[in-house]
Design brief:
Structural class: alpha+beta
Distance between the termini: 86 Å
Radius of gyration: 28 Å
Largest sheet: 8 strands, antiparallel, barrel
Order of helices and strands: EEEEEEEEHEEHHHHHH
Strand order of the largest sheet: 1-2-3-4-5-6-7-8
Shape: elongated
Number of helices: 7
Oligomer: single chain
Number of strands: 10
């Protein structure tokens, strides 16, 4: 039965506010076939999230994220790697299926952060462990951790999920799939990440459990992406506004020198000299306001991988709904319910949609104050002549 993810092993990801309220001891959310009101709706990967970002013009173009999916395997392991790439950075998940001691496939998943540079791939798996490899043409040669230790090198193609499912069907059939040498023993535990034992009840049962593992991993990966994103954006913009405020303090300090000179409290000749200094201060202030606006615009671009992960989560949850066909008892206990999934998406949207308008408004207000002093300093200079 599919209940709230707070009872799931994936709860170790500590979603906190992502799934606020999902662990109620009185009435944990139960997996039910969603109605039109509860079933998630796929959002196109390129669609913008509801944003409070101002429309700041003139900022430099940022690279667009690229998604990739590789699948395949060898007689001992089937592997699916899916990632979103922004510049040389990778964010995604790795899924493996290997035969358990009972002879049934067992699926293991782990989210990762990684890099792709000059064809060299390095993936740091959540909880520990690394997968490394190379890309040549359309083939990814990847060395992955095996159950109980050791590694296996597999040749993966761009077939993604289709190639992965085909490789699962060929596990144990020596020579039936391509792959590299296998080192080390195999055992009942897999790489760090969600582990879902698969019964031998048949393909339908495996598909449900595989989809359930996808949903659990998707929710954890979504949390990994948004954790710290809002905090980082706020800290950056707060620092920017603090710098603008410091610039205004300098403008005001130097303007006081203009006032003193104009009132004869100091050498009147310094009125225009000090006025020019105020003008220079104002240029620095304007420059720092533009930096704040550029950082605000960058916050929107940083949300692109989150949009992609939301789409993946929605697609996988809908696949699970289709696979279970209303048979909620077939879904592993602890799998996030449709309500959990929607709460995770809502919380992710809230996290990435930091209200940057307040910071930009404050910076612009400080800029206007500085501009008023700079204009008055110029008028004082003209009057002194």
């Amino acid at each position: 039965m599919r209940v709230g993810r707070c009872s799931s092993a994936v709860a170790a990801a500590t979603l906190g506010t992502l799934l606020a309220g999902c662990g109620s001891s009185s009435s944990p959310p139960i997996r039910t076939t969603p109605s039109a009101a509860t079933k998630t709706t796929t959002v196109p990967a390129g669609a913008p999230l509801t944003s409070t970002l101002p429309n700041v013009g003139g900022s430099a173009a940022l690279p667009s994220p690229r998604a990739a999916s590789y699948g395949g395997g060898n007689p001992s392991v089937a592997v699916l790697v899916q990632w979103t790439q922004l510049s040389s950075q990778l964010i995604g998940r790795l899924q493996e299926s290997q035969l358990s001691a009972s002879g049934a496939p067992s699926a293991h998943k782990a989210s990762f952060m990684g890099s792709l540079q000059n064809g060299q791939v390095s993936l740091s798996l959540a909880g520990g462990g690394t997968a490394t490899g190379t890309i040549s043409g359309r083939t990814l040669s990847l060395t992955v951790p095996m159950n109980g230790g050791g590694t296996s090198t597999v040749q993966l193609g761009p077939g993604g999920q289709v190639a992965y499912q085909s490789a699962i069907g060929m596990l144990g059939q020596t020579g039936s799939t391509t792959g590299g040498a296998i080192t080390g023993p195999s055992g009942p535990t897999g790489p760090s990440g969600a582990q879902v034992p698969v019964s031998s009840a048949g393909p339908a049962s495996f598909q449900i459990q595989n989809d359930a593992a996808n949903v659990s991993s998707d929710v954890a990966s979504l949390h990994d992406l948004v954790a710290g994103l809002a905090t980082q954006t706020k800290q950056t913009l707060q620092s920017d506004v603090s710098q603008v405020r410091s610039d205004l303090g300098q403008v005001q300090s130097d303007y006081q020198a203009v006032v003193q000179a104009a009132e004869g409290q100091s050498d009147p000749v310094l009125v225009c000299t000090d006025s020019q200094t105020v003008g220079g201060d104002m240029q620095s202030l304007r420059g720092d306001v533009q930096i704040a606006k550029a950082d605000a615009q960058g916050a929107s671009a940083n949300a692109s991988p989150v949009r992609q992960q939301i789409t993946t989560l929605q697609q996988d949850d809908n696949a699970l709904v289709s696979a279970e066909g209303g048979d909620t008892a077939a879904v592993p206990s602890g799998t996030p319910s449709p309500g959990d999934v929607q709460r995770a998406i809502d919380a992710a949207n809230a996290a990435v949609n930091v209200n940057v308008s307040q910071y930009i408004s404050e910076a612009e207000s400080l800029e206007q104050q500085g501009q008023n002093d700079a204009q008055q300093a110029g008028m004082d200079c003209q009057s002194s002549g």
